[in-house]
Specification:
The chain contains 25 helices and no strands. The chain is an all-alpha fold.
Length: 506
């Protein structure tokens, strides 16, 4: 997918007037003034665009727009409520779970995040929540800035292409397209050296389906900078490198598919660019897209590699499947029109979970392909920051800001209770302190007397140095239990030393 640039020239204004790049300009034009009162009472953009009679599925798409979605995995209501309760517990103590129970978070992401909490969970997993807290008011500042005209025209032309059959984006100039424009424009101001890439639009649109514009913006920032750094830069070098990594991993996962693609001389960038840059949002059925994104936010880019490898393996991984793919054209058509069975939610997710491709393998292949790149093409023109593999790595790299501890009373008194003045003590407190001090002194005296060495009896003929090395009686030096007081536990040498230091302190 080529990087969008402004050289295509301005588009001709539509009947509502050309969009100038501000939020206000995305509203209907003057010719729609007569319908303002009628449309103001409609609750969705799909109604405003004339689709009042059409129904939507549970994902917000107009019924029939996605073709035959196949059998959807329906989670029983009781199970869904249990998952919601577990996720609420995790989200309310997120730092603790991320630090100590990350494996449990990963397993629950693999099962699927409850739809009611998916947007919030994505913010926590990606670190977008932390990023927003670290940059209060930043999005509003970018939102109010005019933006670079070079990017505004390109963004405006792409708005209507993003999920046009979803109720949020079906209306030209509707709320969904307004927010999409705001998020994409804000990113071009936040990272002017990168600007805008067409593949960012569907990613931002998916985020907007689950959260407000400001939160979607910071999640987009995390995807572009932490999960897929360099993917949306001008030369697309990072996506080309990952194409070579994918192809190398395919050799281990499916040698048959690898050999066929090598024989046909099909470059990986021809089939995997849209897969990876759009995170499969324009490839898979919607239920599968959401499950893949749940795992992607938790585990990072390895999920995209696994999904790509599963699709290649089950499309081209046997001689029987290759009978209808004798040339480049037939092979590319097979990859463009994937079998719905291999994209079905339950099958795909299970295959992705079981595929043994790890972060370590990806990073090792990355170093190998990077050396080959330098040998054949020289240094990379865009030096992207190192990518972080999932929520755990991002959490460790960008810990959440800690709130200052505020004192809170541990004892709650009934209303009207008189509190003593600061610095004063009650009679009970004074009496308890006296008894404590008295007990400490008596214990110190008793222990000091017990350690006093017994006097030698004259006339026994004993040598003054015939006792133990420490000056104790022979019976005590022998370690006999009788030498210890019955009312005190047995002490080691270390404990005697610490007791002596306590007596000295007293």
């Amino acid at each position: 997918m080529a990087k969008s640039r402004g050289e295509n020239g301005p588009r001709s204004p539509g009947p509502g007037g050309s969009l100038s790049g501000t939020r206000e300009s995305l509203a209907p034009g003057p010719d729609a003034a007569s319908a303002t009162d009628e449309l103001s009472s409609l609750g969705s953009d799909s109604e405003a665009n004339g689709f009042v009679e059409r129904r939507t599925d549970k994902f917000g798409f107009l019924v029939g727009a996605q073709g035959d979605p196949g059998a959807l995995e329906e989670v029983p209501l009781e199970v869904l409520r249990q998952r919601e309760s577990k996720w609420l517990d995790m989200l309310n103590s997120w730092d603790k779970w991320m630090a100590k129970k990350h494996k449990k978070i990963r397993l629950r992401c693999q099962k699927g995040i409850p739809p009611s909490l998916r947007g919030r969970a994505w913010q926590y997993l990606s670190g977008g929540k932390v990023k927003l807290q670290q940059n209060p008011g930043k999005f509003d500042e970018l939102d109010l800035s005019p933006g670079d005209p070079k990017w505004l025209d390109v963004i405006e032309r792409d708005l209507h292409r993003q999920f046009p059959f979803h109720e949020m984006f079906v209306s030209r100039g509707g709320h969904g397209q307004q927010d999409l424009f705001r998020v994409l424009k804000a990113y071009t101001l936040y990272r002017p050296e990168e600007g805008y890439c067409q593949a960012q639009a569907p990613v931002a649109a998916v985020l907007l389906m689950h959260m407000p514009a400001e939160q979607a913006f910071w999640c987009l920032v995390q995807i572009c900078e932490k999960y897929l750094p360099g993917y949306y830069s001008e030369k697309l070098e990072a996506i080309q490198l990952d194409g070579e990594i994918l192809f190398s991993l395919l050799h281990k996962v499916s040698p048959v598919a690898y050999k066929h693609l090598s024989k046909q001389k099909i470059d990986p960038i021809l089939y995997m660019t849209e897969w990876f840059m759009c995170a499969f949002s324009r490839t898979l059925p919607w239920s599968s897209v959401l499950r893949v994104w749940d795992m992607f936010f938790c585990e990072g880019v390895k999920i995209l590699f696994r999904v790509g490898l599963v699709l290649l393996k089950h499309s081209l991984g046997s001689s029987e499947k290759l009978k209808a793919c004798q040339g480049q054209y037939e092979t590319m058509e097979r990859l463009r029109s994937l079998n719905p069975k291999i994209m079905q939610e339950t099958f795909l997710v299970q295959e992705v979970i079981e595929l043994p491709v790890t972060e370590r393998q990806i990073e090792r292949e990355h170093l190998i392909q990077l050396r080959k790149w330098k040998d054949t093409r020289g240094e990379l023109q865009y030096q992207a920051p190192p990518r972080l593999h999932g929520a755990k790595a991002i959490s460790e790299a960008e810990p959440a800001p800690r709130k200052a501890l505020e004192p809170s009373p541990s004892i709650r008194l009934p209303p009207g209770t008189q509190l003593p003045a600061p610095g004063t003590k009650s009679r009970q407190q004074k009496q308890a302190e006296k008894e404590h001090q008295k007990a400490l002194k008596e214990a110190a005296k008793r222990q000091k007397g017990q350690r006093q060495p017994p006097a030698q009896v004259p006339g026994e003929g004993s040598d003054p140095g015939s006792g133990s090395k420490a000056g104790l009686a022979p019976k005590e030096a022998s370690g006999s239990e009788d030498a210890e007081p019955k009312d005190l536990p047995h002490h080691s040498k270390e404990s005697l030393t610490s007791q002596e230091s306590e007596d000295t302190y007293l």
